[in-house]
Design goal:
This protein is an alpha/beta fold. It contains 15 helices and 13 strands. The strands form three sheets. It has a seven-stranded mixed sheet with strand order 4-10-9-8-7-5-6, with helices on both faces. Strands 3-12-13-11 form a four-stranded mixed sheet, with helices on one face. A hairpin with a 3-residue loop joins β1 and β2. α2 packs across α13, α3 packs across α4 and α9 runs parallel beside α10.
Amino acid sequence: MNQRRSGSLSLLRLLGNWQQPASRAPLYQQLAQALRLLILDGRLPLDSRLPGERELASALNVSRTTVASALAQLRDENYLVSRHGSGSVIVLPEPRPAAGRHSVPQALDLATAALPAGPEIHHAFSHALSQLPGFLDHTGYDRQGLLSVRQTIAERYAARGLPTTADQIMMVNGALQGFALVLRLLTGPGDRVAVDNPTYPLAHAAIEGASCRAVGISLPDQGWDSAALAATIAQTAPRLAYLLPDFHNPTGRCMDAATRQDVAAIAARTRTTVVVDETMIDLWYDAPPPPPLAAFGEDEVITIGSAGKSFWGGLRLGWIRAPARTIASLTQVRDSLDLGSPLLEQLAVQALINEADNFLPARRALLKTRRDAAATMLKRYFPDWRFQLPEGGLSFWVELPLPLASQFAASALNIGIHLGAGPRFGTDGAFERFLRLPFALETPQLEDALQRLQPLWQSLVSAPVRSRGVV
């Protein structure tokens, strides 16, 4: 197998300000920690290979001994393997308890924005099991999904202002698989895909997995810049655009109706497909979002939905809403991936959608309470951090006073906390001044994490400016 090679300049951008002068850890351990974070975040892809020791030492302006020691530590921890003719190749350790002086502590995950299952999940599966015997005379293979489930989802879109029929719906195994399927149908190697910058990091992974190139469209301080979208399409001719208008991940903002109209008009005028990810659609706190973007012009819009954030991530079920001819093409393309989505999960999601009005209001109220409590704690423990109260979603997009996000996240691993550094959400190492901080944890647990992070942050900002590498 041919491994892709990470260039030294690209790696240098990803590492950011990795040196921690205030730390007592040797420089090689700091480098190993920073590389480990990039691997765990997915910013260094598995099975890619690192630059050689001499090249990396020159790019980082450190000794070759420092680089060799850092790579040796990562090999000891099973994050790297040496393959003949390929150098150091990135892998992940076996999922077993680590041992030894270089072991990584079990981290509190502040990099994932999600909630555990509520009692409604058990009820939904109990109901689904009671229905399952009616489907056992069927082969169980259905590439488009159960008709009754697709009808239920179609009715949900119609209630939101987008008339939809069952033949415009396809069930998939999560929103990410849905996006990967669209990429497989509509793009080829080397094609460009326009994305919000920042955006959902696994969308970057899907684009890269399709051998395409993401073209970032910077988000302004408020809302979206539809003129920038039009200019990007005119200048780069992307095969499609991927947007998150409904409580955007990571910023939490919601696209207003006028901008949706503008985006739909741009898509129609340029004949550019817009993929709309509605994963966060149900997690609004003050007001529901406007009608779906496809309601403003559906011919060039493909909408992806998911049960993961609305109900529970363990369901791993989503759907695509598109013109019927597009759904038919996606169904054919799917043959190379799988033979359909599990029937029991489809029946459970149908039950959840039918009962959503009975439990989603309480879920939103809980999250709003946690959001407000988290905002108060952030102001108390980190008064120099800036953020806007998200309109929906599960996290804050925090602006730091200094470009120390990757360095802070790498240091946080030492105290057992995994953070989502800003560059994970951007293109070309952008957003070193930002963190995504979820508020889905119970408030006491989040406060404990913030209390532990506060002295770590203070030690970083108190370090001499020159030694931090800040210009």
